[in-house]
């Protein structure tokens, strides 16, 4: 058991090596990050966006992977949902160091963290996973299609959440290149691509994932796709599919109306 002072000191020290990213609650009311989270990309808000879907997938007694696990907030959530074994992989040794410390303080028992690059040729040595959680990752890697293919080697069902293109999400399979610059404290979080939802769905289909449930959080330009090679329960859930269709319709209508208005307002176009 750690004292309040011990935890505070260690959290501060680890934060000096690299600022904390995930907001995690520790004993004695200590938090890794104090500020309020408002962005949809932040861990507590992200979890509220994906939790319902992960419950539908049901990770109880399953072997699951949290890819780009950062400081382990989501790995711990997966463990709480009853996963038999959770593996958290991240290329950043500082993040894994922090994840391990948090795990130690909170006493998790079936999570293991490893410093691993997803593009590692021997990724299969980590075995097969019943489910992969891939949050905030696809837009952060230089080769998103390659990353999907790597994950396809080790799992049949994956939930992707990423920063998507604002326009043309459903009708165009496109990606915007953003230069790979990182505003984050870690060098592995460069913003490379903003792939449209259709683009990610197309890459998934090309990798053998024929079942794709698109959940677009259009107000925040972040998307979620649950993707699988097998038609598991999630794809039969009427509620999810009807919400999804409604969102798709709203988004597509808004996107088309937006293009019409932009065209009408464009001074470069000469109307004959
Ligand atoms: C933007 S963060 C998202 C982290 C977390 N999944 C979340 O949603 O809060 C992306 C994470 O992916 C990791 N990462 C980037 N490239 C990677 C790679 N090639 N292999 C493994 N991890 C990588 C980064 O170190 C970083 O922790």
Fold and architecture overview:
This protein has helices spanning 4-17, 43-57, 73-80, 93-106, 144-152, 197-206, 238-265; strands at 63-67, 85-90, 111-115, 131-135, 157-163, 175-181, 191-195, 211-217, 222-228. The chain has 272 residues and is of the alpha/beta class. The chain has one domain (4-265): Rossmann fold, CATH 3.40.50.150. It has a seven-stranded mixed β-sheet with strand order 3-2-1-4-5-9-8, with helices on both faces. The protein has a two-stranded antiparallel sheet with strand order 6-7. The model has no long low-confidence stretch (mean pLDDT 90). S-adenosylmethionine binds at residues 43, 46, 68, 70, 89-92, 95, 117-119, 135-137, 140-141, 186, 188-189.
Please summarize what this structure is.
Helices cover 36% and strands 20% of the residues. The protein is α/β, with parallel strands linked by helices and 272 residues long. The strands form two sheets. A seven-stranded mixed beta sheet has the order 3-2-1-4-5-9-8, sandwiched between helices. Strands 6-7 form a two-stranded antiparallel sheet.
């Amino acid at each position: 058991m750690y004292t309040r002072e011990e935890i505070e000191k260690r959290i501060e020290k680890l934060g000096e090596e690299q600022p904390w990213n995930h907001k995690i609650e520790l004993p004695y009311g200590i938090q890794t990050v104090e500020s309020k989270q408002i962005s949809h990309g932040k861990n507590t808000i992200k979890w509220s966006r994906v939790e319902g879907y992960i419950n539908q997938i049901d990770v109880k007694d399953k072997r699951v992977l949290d890819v780009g696990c950062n400081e382990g907030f989501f790995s711990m959530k997966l463990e709480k949902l009853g996963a038999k074994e959770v593996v958290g992989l991240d290329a950043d040794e500082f993040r894994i160091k922090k994840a391990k410390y948090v795990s130690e303080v909170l006493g998790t028992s079936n999570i293991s963290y490893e410093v691993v690059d997803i593009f590692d040729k021997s990724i299969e040595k980590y075995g097969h996973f019943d489910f992969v959680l891939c949050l905030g990752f696809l837009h952060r890697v230089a080769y998103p299609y390659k990353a999907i293919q790597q994950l396809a080697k080790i799992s049949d069902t994956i939930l992707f959440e990423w920063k998507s293109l604002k326009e043309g999400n459903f009708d165009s399979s496109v990606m915007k290149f953003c230069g790979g610059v990182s505003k984050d404290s870690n060098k592995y979080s460069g913003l490379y691509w903003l792939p449209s939802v259709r683009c990610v769905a197309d890459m998934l289909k090309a990798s053998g994932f024929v079942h794709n449930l698109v959940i677009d959080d259009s107000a925040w330009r972040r998307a979620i796709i649950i993707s699988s090679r097998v038609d598991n329960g999630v794809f039969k859930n009427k509620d999810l599919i009807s919400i999804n269709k409604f969102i798709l319709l709203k988004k597509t209508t808004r996107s088309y109306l937006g293009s019409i208005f932009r065209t009408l307002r464009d001074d470069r176009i000469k109307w004959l």
